Amino acid sequence: MKNISWNDQDGLFLPEMALDFLPPEKLREIQSQRLIATVKLAYDHVPFFRARMEEKGLTPGDIKGIDDIVLLPFSMKKDLRDTYPYGLFAVDMKEVVRLHASSGTTGKPIVVGYTQEDMDVWTQAVKRGLLATGFRNTDIVQNFYGYGLFTGGLGIHYGLEALGATVIPISGGNTERQIMVLKDFNVTAVGGTPSYFVHIIDVADKMGIDISRLNLKRGIFGAEPWSEGMRTYIQERSGIKAFDIYGLSEILGPGVGCECEHQNGIHIFEDHFFPEIIDPETLQPLPDGEEGELVISTISKRAMPILRYRTRDITSIETEKCICGRTIRRIRRIGRRSDDMFIIRGVNVYPSQIETALLRAEKALPHYQIVLETKNNMDLVDIHVEVSREMISDTVSDMDAISRRLRHAIEQVIGISVAVTLREPGSIPRSEGKAKRTIDNRQHI
Ligand code: DLL
Asked: Which of 248, 263, 316 to mutate to test the pocket of ligand 1 (most atoms within 8 A of CB)?
């Protein structure tokens, strides 16, 4: 195994990890072969995809290697909705061993399927991610991602089991029980959404339990945008190392990519999921390093091959090699989605900008909600921020000063005036899964 620099502290190197360190030419060869096979599979078995290829005057023979991926048509969430439930499946149902579904904000969910081979790829991808972040078979892991149609719970679960870790499949919710288990079962690692973990830390605090004094060492967080400020907050309050895992149902679920121990970008398992960045307006590919919309193609999936899927997630591909030595490319952490954005008085605003400003100004305030309203025909932004218990005891003038400081910090970042409403501890609704950050009560006329 040449060309591998692996500076993990326990020197563990498993065969599947070699895929993270392939020489770039070898990786491209694999990607080319897999893309050619995937295009053929989709063209032969998915009428929807064949029609899209024909519109562009393409046949599978035109795709001769990975560089030809740019010729292919894009796909979008709407395509999954329009072909609901099984219209994009490329294999007979008897080969499909698992279904998941993701509920959109409107109407019917989208349905995704996996063959046994797809399940094995998924499991190995999550396992590679877990290994890269330092999870080991000695870990006892509390998995509070939701189990069920959501891909988070079962996706992480299978990866953990394949690694040989001890999994506690607790799913989301019942926070007091979560804390009892964390403590009594000697849990060493957790997985779940970062917003729910923050809630767990708070509730533990109220119960008089300091999470940083338990056995917990690391956590694998994802399924929603979270900022670097949120990572610092989690790490400082709980004493664990917090890692970022990325994925989406349409492509796989968790495990499309994951950070390594160096926490500086998400390595994409690009021997299975090929990333591109495009300009969302012109749809033209952008060079590595430039920010745009992440587009991903599955190049080994059989039940439901998805080519050039527009994720709506905004990021860029890192140009520098990671010090871990992995040759698979990294994307910068995903702070925002193009459809999270709201426009207020002509200015584009992302919730993540507000989170970053809040945590920068006042480290202790991770619970917030952005309320959009219309008053006298004018659109207003009111940021509801929950204060901590210690702050509550301060004087009214101190509270005013906090509110002013927050308003100023946010206005500096987003460039428009906002209102800040300080709220009592525990008054902003908590989610056991993905947090809902924006409430849009505007009257659109
Ligand atoms: O959230 C899969 C997942 C489960 C990923 C558990 C990680 C951990 P969906 O419900 O289809 O799938 O939502 C996918 O969530 O397009 C992103 O906008 C967002 N997302 C997922 N992971 C991250 C992350 C799962 N690490 C959508 N950072 C994606 C930021 C994330 N956003």
From this structure: 248
